Amino acid sequence: MMDRMHPVFERLGESRVVAVVMIEDEEHAVPLARALLAGGVSAMELTLRSDGALEGMKRIGSEVPEMILGAGTVLHEDQVPAVRAAGAVFGVAPGTNPRVLAAAQEIGLPFAPGIATPSDIELALESGCNVLKFFPAEGMGGLEYLASIAAPYRHLGLRYIPLGGVHEGNLTAYATSPDILAVGGSWLAPKALLNAGDWSGVEALARRAAELVGGTGD
User: Fold this and answer.
1) pTM for the whole thing?
2) What stretches in the chain show pLDDT beneath 50?
3) Which of 81, 104, 156, 207 could be cross-linked to 111 through a Cys-Cys bond (beta carbons 3.0 to 4.6 Å apart)?
């Protein structure tokens, strides 16, 4: 068996859903986080795919401390200390980069690297990771494929966060799989709602997701 899961990831498991979001305007960060919390989603992955990402993290960390805040699309080792300083309590990447994982391990940032094959899983295992992002989930074959590649490692206690093609229609199936820690939901904060400042719309999507998985929220 591997080492015990980091407490941050245990909290993600309680939340059951991780809202995966990209913000282009840092002014959206705090109302978005509050809307997700109001709907019962207490974890979010803010991706580093926009100029406003780090500033948005800082604002959420400062003004919405009850949100379990993660940084996504962490592709370079120098981004690791930057997201930690901005308030992220965990990191996520679409792939498994040993240099990024080493940087995260050095500063104690819990990290979920992306995996799509058994070789990816073994590379992540070498860095001591026991929570892995399954990406792109549906593109790779969904739960059936995951069950196949997860089987040889299940005795190690690995858990997965699927993202990519997950939506309301298959959310429950993913959430009830014993291999899944929490489900990544990129549909919870669509660009149209963010641009319109429709925070009640975001809250409604979050509430629906929380109801579907029976998450506890925080």
Assistant:
1) 0.95
2) 1, 215-218
3) 104
